[in-house]
Design a protein that fits this description.
Blueprint (H helix, E strand, L loop, with lengths): L21 H8 L3 H10 L6 E3 L3 E3 L2 H16 L4 H10 L1 H28 L1
Length: 119
């Protein structure tokens, strides 16, 4: 499940849901649940909604943030502290990267729909 050599382009598309459980996010980001809980302590930007029984519910922006953290740590070789500094440093750059990820995902989904329609 945890393969640092796989890039964010290899990750599955994010479904159009409002909330995701920790298990779903784990599958979507290819990161184990205990790592996600640890990252919540280390990255102040990562704040899932907690409901009854302290269950975590992540939103789309949380999933994108986790993918960005994953990329910084596993693909770009940052330490936890370096990744934290990178994320807190330039929010405009962060927003641009998130927008680019969303556009890439939408393009992929639209290409899949086009292939289905061509059949």
């Amino acid at each position: 499940m945890l393969d640092p050599s796989s890039s964010n382009t290899d990750l599955p598309a994010i479904p159009g849901k409002r909330y995701f459980t920790i298990g779903e996010v784990s599958d979507l980001c290819q990161v184990k649940p205990h790592v996600l809980r640890y990252w919540e302590q280390e990255f102040p930007q990562l704040k899932p909604v907690k409901r009854r029984g302290n269950r975590r519910y992540y939103q789309r922006h949380d999933v994108l943030m986790i993918r960005q953290i994953r990329s910084l740590l596993y693909e770009q070789g940052f330490t936890i502290g370096g990744a934290r500094q990178q994320l807190s440093g330039d929010t405009a750059k962060e927003d641009l990267q998130q927008s680019q990820q969303i556009i890439k995902q939408l393009r992929g989904e639209l290409e899949e729909v086009l292939q289905i329609l061509k059949r």
